[in-house]
Amino acid sequence: EVQLQASGGGWVQPGGSLRLSCSTSGFTFDNTWMHWVRQAPGKRVEWLASIHTRTSVLIHATSLGGRFTISRDNAKKTLYLNMTDLNVEDTATYYCARDERGDVRGQGTQVTVSS
Q1: Phi/psi class of residue 53: alpha, beta or left (left: φ > 0; alpha: ψ in -120 to 50)?
Q2: Partners of 11 in beta bridges
Q3: Per residue in 55-75, pLDDT tens?
Q4: In angstroms, what CA-CA distances link 49 with 13, 43, 54?
Q5: What is the pLDDT of residues 89-107, one digit of tens each?
Q6: Contacts for 32 with CB less than 8 Å, ≥ 6 apart
Q7: Which of 35, 19, 42, 22 has its CA nearest to residue 92?
Q8: Mode of pairing for the β-strands spanning 33-39 and 10-12
Q9: Which helix (H) or strand (E) holds 39?
């Protein structure tokens, strides 16, 4: 059974930073694409970033302006998302996913950016 558990969210002021983690199990983590997506209330799922866990190929949404960075630790089977210069529009529930659309995603973690 595929399990994806995101953590590390919380409340942060505009301009702040957070590092999200996603622990995984139930599939081969070290040779696959992994993704981060988010969903704000009333909005569609938005793809943020992808990484191939074997080749380290990275892709980030250009709309993020270089503020977010995806990474992984194959030994820990864990995916990360480092987020900097957060703004109120980044408020959403963040998920790690097995596909870019977020159809296969686990429990998310809430990020709230406000002053």
Answers
A1: alpha
A2: 112
A3: 999 999 999 999 999 999 999
A4: 23, 18, 16
A5: 999 999 999 999 999 998 9
A6: 52, 53, 54, 98
A7: 42
A8: unpaired
A9: strand 33-39
- DSSP, collapsed to helix, strand or coil, labels residue 4 as strand
3 close to 24: Cβ distance less than 8 angstroms: yes
**Helix, strand or coil, per DSSP, at residue 103:** coil
Give the single-character DSSP code of 53. T
Q: What angle do CA 82, 15, 60 make, to 5 degrees?
A: 35
Contacts of 37 (CB under 8 A, 6+ apart): 45, 46, 47, 48, 94, 95, 96, 97, 100, 101, 102, 105
For 22-44, b/e burial (b = at least 16 CB within 10 A) is bbbeeeebeeebbbbbbbeeeee
Question: Contact 21/79 with Cβ under 8 angstroms?
Answer: yes
Q: What are phi and psi of 33, to 5 degrees?
A: -85, 140
